[in-house]
Amino acid sequence: MTQSRIYAAYERLLDRFVARAETDSALRGIVVLGSRAREHRPADEWSDLDLVVVTTDPESYLSETDWLSELGTPILTFLEPTATGDGTERRVLFDGGLDVDFVPVTPERIVRMERDGFEPDTATTFARGFRVVYDEDGIGETLAAAVPDSPPETEPPSSEEFHELVADFWYHTIWIAKKLRRGERWTAMGCVDGYVKHDCLLPMVRWHARARTDRDTWHGGRFLEEWADDRVVDELGDAFARYDSDDLWRALFATMELFRWVADEVADELGYDYPTAEDAAVTELVEELFEGRDDAN
Known about the structure:
Helix 6 packs antiparallel against helix 10 (about 245-270), helix 6 (about 160-180) packs parallel to helix 11 and helix 7 (about 185-210) packs parallel to helix 10 (about 245-270). About 55% of the residues lie in helices and about 15% in strands. It has helices spanning about 5-20, 60-65, 105-115, 120-125, 140-145, 160-180, 185-210, 225, 230-240, 245-270, 275-295; strands at about 25-35, 50-55, 75-80, 90-95, 100-105, 130-135. The radius of gyration is 23 Å and the shape is elongated. The mean pLDDT is about 90. It is built from eleven helices and six strands. The chain folds into two domains: about 5-145, Beta Polymerase, domain 2; about 160-295, Up-down Bundle (Four Helix Bundle (Hemerythrin (Met), subunit A)). The protein is an alpha+beta fold.
């Protein structure tokens, strides 16, 4: 299916949802978010459709699925936490590969957003672009007044935040090494390719990009290949592992080296002290655990 046909298919599905809203008094508004509402980095043939469903009965959109057949032929559906904020969304894969995320919220939630302000990640999502396709209560005006004109600036970390993240990373390198020595490859891999990459390395890479350039650093690693330092992108190829003990050790050491220089440069840019002694002590322990494999065999 070509990009134009995919776009038309999503728009037809959206039209059917608007038609449903016109017969459902509980449904007060429909807001398109994400790439199908953005001017910068607009939707391509791989993009899904992200919808905020403003309703006085949000629970029905999470607990019931009969309404989906009014929009198309669902292949599968499930619930998961929203990418930003503390909500829950229903994800649906429709026939033809159409992927739609429905995030139900109450009208009161929209009013609170205007009154109290958005959470930073949510503010960024709305600021990148939204379009209201159904509006019974002036939701569009409320959002227009509340949404910032541009994504909020990513604040640099405080010294405490920086050192907490560095300690978190190095603590988990020991944890991974111990799991590897025990033979728990699955657990070790989940940490070396998961937690320390997403929760430790990625924030540091974002801080690094913001400290050294004025690039827009997207949440969750989106478009990292374009905004991260070129050296980071190059070295990430060696930092991920196969499900193999030797390769997990290799990836662990590569990740340690990558995190080290990125964090050291962030510290230098922000005028913080990089904990060199702690880094060296932990690295020595990891190396001892690695070298002790031969004694154990």
